Structures are given as C-alpha cells and as structure tokens.
Amino acid sequence: MYKTTPDVIFVFGFRTHFGGGKATGFGMIYDSLDYAKKNEPKHRLARHGLYEKKKTSRKHRKERKNRMNEESQGDCKSQRWCWQKEGVKILQWLYLW
Fold first, then answer.
1. Which of 39, 41, 21, 19 lies closest to 30 in space, CA to CA?
2. Which residues pair with 12 in a beta bridge?
3. Which residues form a coiled coil (predicted)?
4. Are 36 and 30 in contact (CB under 8 A)?
C-alpha cells in the first residue's frame, strides 16, 4: 500500500475486542526518519531503539532528592502542605462570624 520501510512506521494505542481475532489501533507513517525523530514522543522512539534516556546513578538521585528537601525546610511558603493549613485557618476564622 505505502512504499516505505518499517523503521518509519510507528503504531500505538491498540485495543482488543471481546471474543478475540480483532484489534484496532493507530499508526503514523513518516516520510523520513528525521521527521519521525522530530515529531514522535520520546517513549515511542525508545520502543524503536532510537532514543535512550541518560540515567544517573542511584546514589546521585537520592542525594539530589535529599538536597531538595533540605532547601524547602525553611519558610512556610516553600512547602506544599503549608497553603492547605493556611486555608484551614481562614475557613475556621470565617466560621466564627
């Protein structure tokens, strides 16, 4: 049907139908591999072996996580849960009226 090579065809989103024997999905056929690398998401490129994520070491990830937690321990505005507590105080104040 289309005169192309399999490396520029990307299929995804397949769903099987009850009873078996039939499945539907989506497919993208690109003109060249350069267009595919530019337009396809990274996770689909990784399935074809065209993209590999740079993975840091486990120790480095843990140190970065702990460093970020230490930096946000300072004031209340930098912590996620603080605005919820402030909102609760405001609601309690409104109920007093």
1. 39
2. 26
3. none
4. yes
DSSP 54: P
Instruction: Name the one residue in this structure whose structure tokens are 């690109």.
Output: 30
Q: Does residue 91 form part of some domain?
A: no
The position carrying tokens 């996770």 is 43
Contact by Cβ (8 Å): 50, 39: no
Is position 84 within any domain? no
Q: Is a pLDDT exceeding 70 seen at residue 65?
A: yes
Q: Which of 17, 36, 19 has the alpha carbon at shortest distance from 27?
A: 36
DSSP class of residue 84?
H
As a whole number of angstroms, the distance between CA 66 and CA 72 comes to 10
| CB atoms closer than 10 angstroms to residue 48 | 16
- pLDDT tens digits, one per residue of 11-46: 999 999 999 899 999 999 999 999 999 999 999 999
Question: In angstroms, rounded to a whole number, what is the distance separating the alpha carbons of residues 39 and 68?
Answer: 33
